[in-house]
Design brief:
single chain; 10 strands; about 30% helix
């Protein structure tokens, strides 16, 4: 198997009601390059594993599953993310995308659009997009999130622009970033991560290595899930 250009990081824990939307978003991507999804189930107690197995059997070239017998999130020393990062590194991919099991992609050309932007501009470390907002049942709450960046103006943003943003945040489910400097980035993130800040510190660390491109198109759905870690 040739190295995939993109590896998707997908963490799953008791996401049964939402997981089909998430995995369908992966397998429906239309790209001119290969990609894989590392789908890590952290010992879910619902039917998440059965759904992952179903997709892994149907799409073996895309879905790479990891099933835990014990919940790693509760274990010390960051063993959960070390396990996921090892799997991502093994793919040898040039880029990493993130989408947790309760969010999902809505645009089948999402990856293609973002990779074309990143491949054409070596100064960029990452590419993000806009999202819509849905409730836990998938009902649309916002057609398009306003002021993801100042005025939702598409273009290139550096760390100074980031701190001028209304919310100092990018939609996690939309990011694609270069898989370089990973040891340094992960080490810094382990020392600064905070579940109540979401991925706020990750954006700052990535910005220290390059600029982001913000694509003002809706390519994913952010789910307001009352049982998620952040909520």
């Amino acid at each position: 198997m040739n190295k995939p250009l993109v590896a998707i990081q997908c963490l799953v824990y008791n996401h049964e009601p939402y997981l089909r939307d998430c995995l369908n978003g992966f397998v429906s991507q239309q790209t001119s390059f290969s990609f894989v999804a590392i789908v890590h189930d952290d010992a879910s107690t619902d039917n998440s594993v059965a759904i992952i197995k179903e997709f892994a059997e149907k799409y073996p070239d895309i879905i790479i599953p990891i099933y835990e017998k014990e919940n790693l999130y509760r274990k010390p020393n960051g063993i959960l993310m070390k396990t996921v990062h090892a799997a991502l590194d093994k793919t040898g991919s040039k880029y990493i995308a993130i989408c947790e099991g309760d969010d999902y992609w809505t645009d089948p050309l999402k990856l293609q659009k973002q990779i074309e932007i990143l491949e054409s501009n070596s100064d960029l470390i990452a590419c993000v997009t806009n999202t819509c907002k849905v409730d836990k049942k998938g009902n649309l709450l916002e057609q398009k999130k306003e002021n993801v960046v100042q005025g939702n103006k598409e273009g290139i943003y550096d760390i100074y622009d980031f701190f001028k943003m209304p919310q100092h945040q990018y939609p996690t489910a939309t990011i694609v970033y270069r898989a370089i400097h990973q040891n340094e980035i992960r080490s810094k993130f382990r020392h600064t991560e905070n579940p109540f800040r979401g991925d706020w510190t990750l954006w700052i660390i990535l910005h220290s290595y390059g600029k982001f491109y913000y694509l003002d198109e809706v390519t994913a759905a952010y789910r307001t899930n009352p049982t998620s870690l952040t909520h």
